[in-house]
TrEMBL record:
<protein>
    <submittedName>
        <fullName>Homolog to NAD(P)H dehydrogenase (Quinone)</fullName>
    </submittedName>
</protein>
<dbReference type="InterPro" id="IPR050712">
    <property type="entry name" value="NAD(P)H-dep_reductase"/>
</dbReference>
<comment type="similarity">
    <text>Belongs to the SsuE family. Isf subfamily.</text>
</comment>
<dbReference type="GO" id="GO:0005829">
    <property type="term" value="C:cytosol"/>
</dbReference>
<dbReference type="GO" id="GO:0010181">
    <property type="term" value="F:FMN binding"/>
</dbReference>
<feature type="domain" description="NADPH-dependent FMN reductase-like">
    <location>
        <begin position="5"/>
        <end position="145"/>
    </location>
</feature>
<dbReference type="InterPro" id="IPR005025">
    <property type="entry name" value="FMN_Rdtase-like_dom"/>
</dbReference>
<dbReference type="GO" id="GO:0016491">
    <property type="term" value="F:oxidoreductase activity"/>
</dbReference>
<dbReference type="Pfam" id="PF03358">
    <property type="entry name" value="FMN_red"/>
</dbReference>
<dbReference type="InterPro" id="IPR029039">
    <property type="entry name" value="Flavoprotein-like_sf"/>
</dbReference>
Length: 193
């Protein structure tokens, strides 16, 4: 039985995606730890119509929420589209909420055809903050992905190492015990749940 479950949410729908092998590489690094189970949530394999709050159980929404909610840590992987993250990932995140992400460890990974994909990571960090997720400091941006990823393999050693560190951080940070509430917060009426 596993004591940590690490998922990666692959926000690319392309067959020749660079995001998918990068996410799998991170999961492989996480799986090297004893007691870790991984789950690659490939949005290309799920039916998720454009989110409608009046139909939030559409398609595979329940399965998506269950898989994300079962994870102790989640890597959000996305291609860079117009300086931000993919609509597929945005749509999947719209189906999720606090139940899936609050106090969950999150890692950020993006791939780009060009350079300087950091705004994408900033946008995702803001979304995670709104969901009360805990985003690890280490994040991965892969510029010029077509020269760094071939097929299912990362061929750039520096990129491979950064992605492996992200996978390891997912496990390490997911296993940190939360701090107990302070005496001050337990006596402060305004801080009660």
């Amino acid at each position: 039985m596993s004591d940590s479950r690490i998922a990666a949410l692959v926000g690319s729908l392309r067959d020749g995606s660079y995001t998918r092998p990068a996410c799998r590489h991170a999961l492989a690094a996480a799986a090297a730890f004893d007691g870790v189970e991984t789950d690659c949530i490939d949005l290309r394999k799920l039916s998720l119509p454009v989110f409608d709050a009046d139909a939030d159980e559409a398609g595979d929404a329940s399965a998506l929420r269950a898989r994300v909610g079962a994870a102790d840590a989640v890597v959000l992987g996305t291609p860079v589209y117009h300086g931000s993250y993919s609509s597929a990932l945005k749509n999947a995140l719209d189906y999720c909420g606090f139940d899936e992400f609050e106090d969950t460890t999150v890692g950020l990974l993006c791939v780009a055809g060009g350079s300087f994909p950091t705004t994408t990571l900033d946008h995702l960090r803001s979304v995670c903050r709104a969901l009360d997720a805990w985003v690890v400091p280490h994040q991965v941006a892969i510029p010029g992905a077509r020269t760094r990823i071939e097929g299912d393999e990362i061929v750039d050693d520096d990129v491979a190492e950064r992605v492996e560190v992200l996978g390891r951080r997912m496990v390490e940070y997911a296993r940190i015990e939360p701090d107990p509430r302070t005496i001050e917060s337990t006596q402060n009426v305004g801080a009660e749940d």
